[in-house]
Prior knowledge:
Blueprint: E1 8-10, E2 17-19, E3 148-150, E4 153-155, E5 232-238, E6 241-247, E7 252-254, E8 264-266, E9 271-273, E10 280-281, E11 329-331, E12 339-341, E13 348-350, E14 354-356, E15 362-367, E16 376-381, E17 414-416, E18 422-425, E19 434-437, E20 510-511, E21 515-517, E22 522-523, E23 528-529, E24 533-535, E25 539-541, E26 546-548, E27 555-556, E28 604-605, E29 613-614, E30 616-623, E31 629-632, E32 637-638, E33 650-655, E34 665-671, E35 675-680, E36 689-696
Amino acid sequence: xxxxxxxxxxxxxxxxxxxxxxFLHTTGNExxxxxxxFTGSVTNSNTTTTGTNTSITTGNGLTSGQALxxxxxxxxxxxxxxxxxFYGGASDSYAGxxxxxxxxxxxxxxxxLTADETTAGTVLGISARSxxxxxxxxxxxxxxxxxxxxxxxxxxxxxxxxxxxxxNVFNVSASGAGGASANLxxxxxxxxxxxxxxxxxxxxxxxTAVSVLLGTSGTGQLVNTAAGYTGTLLDxxxxxxxxxxxxxxxxxxxxxxxxxxxxxxxxxxxxxxAAATGNITxxxxxxxxxxxxxxxxxxxxxxxxTTINIGRTGQSTVVGGSLTSTQSFIVGPGAPNLFTVxxxxxxxxxxxxxxxxxxxxxxxxLAGAASGNPVVLSALGASDANVGIQLTPKGAGRVTxxxxxxxxxxxxxxxxxxxxKIELAGAASGxxxxxxxxxxxxxxxxxxxxxxxxTGRVLITTGGLTVQSGTILxxxxxxxxxxxxxxxxxxxxGTTATxxxxxxxxxxxxLLGNVTVAGTLGVTGATTLSSTxxxxxxxxxxxxxxxxNAATGNITxxxxxxxxxxxxxxxxxxxxxxxxTGxxxxxxxQTLTVNSDTQxxxxxxxxxxxxxxxxxxxxxTCAGANATATTCNSGNLTGITAANLTTTDVxxxxxxxxxxxxxxxxxxxxxxxxxxxxxxxxxxxxxPTWNIMVVRR
Length: 697
């Protein structure tokens, strides 16, 4: 018998002792100590239902060894290659070099790696340094995976959870170069709805939900669609309200201000806005059109600009419509200006001569001269050798010729004109000289105009003026003034006239001074007064459409229909702004309607005269925290001025976002000029935005 490899043989002489304590029997609980090597297959057929099938315990002394080591060596096994239902295999056929399988509908965890007391190290490590085409991790799910949830919320087929953390909860990195079609992370789905990738960071305050860092080149984010796609390529929202969207046509909608720190270029330099200067440059070729989308004006430099330069030196500037200048029009600015049209008077000033007429015909040149020389009116002709000068006054206007030796003397009658002629005739002693229309005039009826020079007047120095028949008509254009040469009254119809008619129906009669009406004043049309109108009785417009009571000054509108008081322009209407102590609007029991924004510069009192006055109402928001107490101050208040807060303010709050938890919240601890506190009886569950209304007494 050879027991060398399995038993301990001891004894001396004829006594041989065989120690069988090292035997492993087929039944019973036994312990085998020391290292054991099995060269064949090992099968554990324990059918336990509640206990532990196989347990490997190292005690507490393992430092650098291995609790379990499975090494297939250099075997080129194909177990698990292309198996499993996802790859066309049968159910439960997926196997590997190490396989843990179950065919029951279990609710537990098939493989658990638990290291709750470990603070460092790697709980699960997978090393496949030479892997080129295989899979480091392969997860297969059913044909309709609907997910699950637990007490902490929704979970997925692959679930990674953490509480507070400072590093990376999920990290995928590669240190080598990738090919043109390589993806460090690939998300691909044939789903028709839902989200392929969802990132939720509702509690994020200062971090970034998605951070993309690039080197010196590459594309930070690419969105590509199939042909015929319609929809929104990019949709950025705040509180589910779009603030930045881009659709399939590239149309971009920005909900707020668009701040661009670099140049702005439209369609390959069709329009460029330089970031450094703000200058706008049109296309490199072709005409550039700037127009309004409607019939309103285009305003350039109307607010703060000091100088506006249009056009380029040596190039033509074409104005397609009428050119209107509200200020003086200047050509060649200098000292003095070469050509000026005054906006105040319309006067034209030029340092050169002015030539009028066609360049191919006869023209007139008006030229100034140096001091001591006369100004010159010259006739020029492109082809005529002799060109005359014709002075043609308008109507009965005259031409005056003077020189240094006197004037123009006519010994007989002077007849001026070609069709209707004016005649100046002297007379013998005792007879009156005459200024009359010559009998050789063409028209049967011809007016006679007396026109003084400058501010001079036509004077009748003695006797007076008698109009034997007809009427007195003013000029056909411009105002017609009748005035006294002194401060005495002008009496019209004061002696024998029965009726005095002033003005024409449908036209405005302006009374520029104080007006006293001794009798009844009946106004049936529009009346314009540029000074005081003194009326001792009631003033009634168009049969009680408007009445001013002479005893009280009260104004009463029409007996029927609405009564409208409005301004003739866009300026304000001021009522009681100078000396009034109180203004009462509306009637008790009736509704007062204000159709526009209302600004109250004083206090607002609602109710009786003894009620509390409201000095100010502020409405805004406060960005809260997911905490039982939120302090609202200048750092998180919008629309509310923290410096205006007083301890007597009445502050009303509502939440602009739904609470996850139902909590009662109140305002307390108002610090004047600084802050107030919103306190809840528990955390809201979200970081709410509070709507705030402050009523100040």
